[in-house]
Amino acid sequence: MTTSTFDRPFPALTPAQRYHLEVFGYTVVEGALSDDEVGDLLEALYRIRGELCRLEDPSAAGPRVNGAYLRKNAPHHRFIGHIIEADPVITAYATHPRLVSMAEELMGCEARIVEMNAHVNSRAPEPVSGDPRYGFHRGTDIPFGGHVQGGLFHCNFVKTLTNLTDLEPDDGGTVVIAGSHKVDVPTEDLIELAYRDRTLIHQVVAPAGSTLLFSETLIHATGQIRSDRERVIIITGYGAPMFPYWDEGELSDGFKRQIPDQLTTLFHGKAHWGRGPRYRTLAESADARPFPLGAWDRRAPPV
Ligand SMILES: O=C(O)CCC(=O)C(=O)O
């Protein structure tokens, strides 16, 4: 059974993408955004970064830029938190019909936005090492976050992470320990194993506009930048509808008033145990209808 509050494709992934997700815990969808959409998002994020960097206190303590603040503020790494209402094009990213549906397909239920942020980073000042150590982590543990339905793995906390700059091997694409999303042994043990055999570490190498969808049970980290290029990524975290929003931010009253009815669950969740199951089989082909980034407050109701 599927439920739909606004028109979005289902299934959103091809069988091959869903299979990749099953085996490795992540899939990369190239061309998720067009060049123009990437350009608009980049412009918005650079504007917000510029405005935040001019503030005396750009931290969560504020003042903020339309809710956004710097979670990390180093010259080589600006991690911008709570960007959900910082610019309409960013809100459009979080509500993109195909990206929301990709997240829901991995969750096995309707989505609620739980966090939204962006990284703008370049090479760290420390000398580059041939065998980097990464900040590997998981956002949830497998027994709590995961479940299997119809032979496919699902997770109640997932992310869509889109690179807005090209990622060549030296450009610091996200690194993951492939397949760790289902391996319920201590995280530190898997990390040590992966450092001993680095073929277990996969890195995102993809053109701008590609979206990495992953389960938060997957061990992952920011990659190491060895080139002179700046990396810009935008991330939406989605949780099951009864989860809270947790990005050290609250939606402003003005923004809340603009939320159309069909996006209520996506922004506010639902205080109810019913999760709105969304399951597919591997045999089903993707719903290939085109869905551009569009305007967030004009999402079409379900057909
Ligand atoms: O910077 C990245 O590539 C990964 C971001 C990350 O670790 C996260 O969102 O949890």
Q: What distinguishing features does this structure have?
A:
303 residues; alpha+beta; Jelly Rolls; seven-stranded antiparallel beta sheet; three-stranded antiparallel beta sheet; 8 helices; 12 strands; globular; binds 2-oxoglutaric acid
**Number of discrete domains:** 1
Compute the CA-based radius of gyration: 18 Å
Low-pLDDT segments, ≥5 res: none
Instruction: From the 3D structure, determine the CATH topology.
Output: Jelly Rolls
CATH level-1 class: Mainly Beta
State the share of residues found in helices, binned by percent: 10-25%
Helix/strand order: HEHEEHHEHEEEEHEEEEHH
- Please count the beta strands (DSSP E, at least 2 residues each): 12
Strand content: 15-25%
**Principal-axis shape:** globular
* Overall pLDDT metric: 96
CATH-level-2 architecture: Sandwich
* Ligands and ions found: 2-oxoglutaric acid
Q: What's the CATH H-level superfamily name?
A: q2cbj1_9rhob like domain
